[in-house]
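Archive maintenance. Older records in this collection stored only the sequence; we are now back-filling the structure field for every entry so that each record is complete. The fields below show one back-filled record exactly as it appears after the update. Entries are processed alphabetically, and ATP-dependent Clp protease proteolytic subunit is next in the queue.

ARCHIVE ENTRY
Title: ATP-dependent Clp protease proteolytic subunit
Organism field: Intestinibacter bartlettii
Length field: 241
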Amino acid sequence: MKSSNQSPSVENENENNKEKQTVQNIKELGTNKVPTKDDKTIQCITIIGEIEGHFVGNPQKKATKYEHVIPMLYSIEEDPEIKGILIILNTVGGDVEAGLAMAELINSISKKVVTLVLGGSHSIGVPLATAGDYSFIAPSATMIVHPIRTNGLVIGVNETFEYFKKMQERINEFITRTSNISEEELTRLMNAKDELVSDVGSVLIGKEAVDCGLINEVGGLKESLTKLKELIKEDNNNETT
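Back-filled structure field:
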């Protein structure tokens, strides 16, 4: 009679495969696991380094690739076991189109979303920080708010400036729609001239981001998870009533 137990060699092979998959997930997606039916009710997504869009960034820099984040968000939306998402941000910004696309997707997902700014969430990281249902910022974390900019060759015609203007309007509309900051205050912060050495804009540290209405609350991981669980519980209660 054959034994149903696996041999030690098969068990070791399975463990090695799991370890390889974990390392691959961390390397490619920035998380130790991707959403599956066996996951818990909360999924964590990290957006770190530079947001990489249509062009490949500097290989020496840390980057979050939007072609990785978008399928992950889709799989979370389709997974009935996952009820909430914690998004941890420490980004210098990056590709505007890619960052805004991810922000819109986060904002439109049916799961409850809490964002946490650690270190910093600059430039296009600002709408990513406001895209969830509730946002936190660590006391020492910073957010740099400034108008969009580009480097390299720019064609100096009116159409180019109109394009930048419309892109800025899209970003401003998203931020004011997903946070408590007014259009006037956002414009003032973006055009401030006395805080950045070689650019216009503002640096907001911790509570300053809360005071102006960009972020909901100062807090860390504990506060973020507590709030997310509260939102999930409220959502479950609404479904049962």
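Update note: The longest strand covers residues 42-52. Helices lie at 8-29, 66-78, 96-108, 125-130, 158-178, 183-190, 207-211, 221-240.
Entry marked complete.
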